[in-house]
Amino acid sequence: IFETLRKRDDANALEEKTRSVNERERALFEKQQRALRHLIEANTTLPCTVSSVRVLGAVNTRPGFLKRIIDPLLSANRDRPYTLAEALRETQYATDKLSRHGIFHEPISISIDRPDRTDPSSTPTDVDIYISLREKGRVAFRTGTEAGNTEGSAFTNLYLRNIFGGAESLSLNASLGTRTRTAYQATFEAPILANPDLRGEIGGLASSTQKIWASHEEVLKGGWTKLRWLGRGGKHELGYSGIWRQVTGLAEKASPTVRGDAGDSVKSSITYSVTNDQRDYPLLPQSGYFTRSTLELAGWGPLQGDVAFGKAELEGQGAVPIPIPGIKGNGGVSFTSSLRAGLMYPLPLGFDSKPQPSRINDRFQLGGPTDVRGFRLGGLGPRDGPDAVGGDLYAAGSANLLVPLPRLGPEKPFRIQAFVNGGRLLALKQSEKEEMSSSSVRESISSTVAELGDGLPSMSAGVGLVYGHPVARFELNFSLPLVIRKGEDARKGLQFGLGISML
Q1: What's the pLDDT score for residue 82?
Q2: What are phi and psi of 10, to 5 degrees?
Q3: 8-state DSSP, 382
Q4: Rounded-to-integer distance, Cα 366 and Cα 376, Å
Q5: Would you call 19 exposed, middle or buried from its count of C-beta atoms within 10 A (0-12, 13-18, 19+)?
Q6: HSE value, Cβ hemisphere, 13 Å, CA-based, for 267
Q7: Strand 234-248 vs strand 263-277: parallel, antiparallel, or unpaired?
Q8: CA of 403: how far to CAs of 131, 231, 339, in Å?
Q9: Which of 159, 239, 389, 485 has its CA 20 to 30 A from that of 378?
Q10: Beta strand 47-56 with 126-132: parallel, antiparallel or unpaired?
Q11: Would the CA dihedral through 63, 64, 66, 67 be positive or negative?
């Protein structure tokens, strides 16, 4: 008994000693920060020369990689002298670049010291800068579940970080899902010229996805390469992909359109996208805006493959807070409006002159809990029997009013929403007797665009509960279809949705 009590007293004493040491270290750190802040404020215009920059703790990072980031700090590489404030600002900019590579723990500490006065090469204005880093682990292994648009999955991921000492990464992922039955993906990514805002990527995939709205399964195998950069207008991405696709596993009730597109095809395409996200919280925005435009060119000219088309998509969203009388600051009530539109333009394959008709696995689909609520997956647009066969032109919009739950308040990621949304999905009008040509495609595009604005879109309204989880947005809505066109598949009543991009 006495031995047990003694051990308990020792453990309490050790805990108290550790807490006391931590408090003293924190007090010393705060004192040093106050002294440094006072010193900087009193000497912001003092001329200084950065004679050396030393990086500590970068054990697995290449010196050449660090040199590209650190060298611009040295006064020897500048056209004019520093002031102390400028030197600190440039040092902070360099450490921010190091941080954005994602291979070092936060925070990155900076120290400034005077060089040894006995060194004959030093001058009175010389300063030495020390950057202390702590590298993240090079291997990470995760298993778990994740949510995407209208789909949940279980995954296993192996992530290798800073492989060659230059912030390179390799991600190996395997998953099983509710719609994507199996998916295997490998992605290698690396910064170019040690710039975190300029990155290259190469990858490959193999997947099998059940397309229940069109009575088939799609198998994909292929690879891609991408270049990403941060520039004017937001984040830019230019990529090339070569994908072998197979429409297989047809259901007994599969329509003639689906059966006609069954089998193999190869898509060779170039894509370019620009994304500008200024929302405060993308999954549950209270203010800000979001825009994204995507262009894809497949099969035309030297791209070859089995399919040829040009595809353009635009997406935008804006959110504004609504002030509440009697409540100061953010009351959590907001109005969100979203718009999406897309066009698919048939092109000649290779260097041929005859445009190719679109296939079911390239056309747009519209309807479901992540875009036009109140309709089933693929519930809008052209159909052939039980199958949603997709369209070549679409437009959809939504208006949402979000209100916090009364007892939870605006800080919690729960909202009650009231919404009205609608859209139309159309196929290009093409006579079966007339052979497809460039002129007939232009006429078809013109007449289909005109038809898009003919009459009301398919619409629904409703109320629901929204939860903005850090991984995905969850919605449970009661929807009432208001406008339904012949053949469309509406859904009245409760509808559950989860996704990372909701209309």
Answers
A1: 84
A2: -65, -40
A3: -
A4: 9
A5: exposed
A6: 25
A7: antiparallel
A8: 46, 35, 21
A9: 239
A10: parallel
A11: positive
Q: How far apart are CA 488 and CA 383, in angstroms?
A: 8
Compute the distance between CA of residue 37 and CA of residue 49 in angstroms, rounded to an integer: 19
Q: What single letter denotes the amino acid at residue 450?
A: A
Extract the tokens encoding 385. 């029997």
Q: Which of 286, 290, 291 is nearest to 320 (CA)?
A: 286
Instruction: Give the closest residue to 125 by CA, choosing from 69, 49, 11.
Output: 49
Give every CB contact of residue 221 below 8 A, 6+ residues apart in sequence: 205, 206, 243, 244
> Contact, 416 vs 390, CB < 8 A?
no
The first and second tokens of residue 262, run together, are 């069954």
Q: What is the DSSP letter of 103?
A: -
**Using CA atoms, how far apart are residues 105 and 204, in angstroms rounded to an integer?**
30
pTM above 0.70, yes or no: yes
The confidence score (pLDDT) of residue 227 equals 97
Alpha helices in 144-290 (DSSP H): 256-260
Q: Taking a C-beta distance cutoff of 8 angstroms, is the pair 428, 346 a contact? A: yes
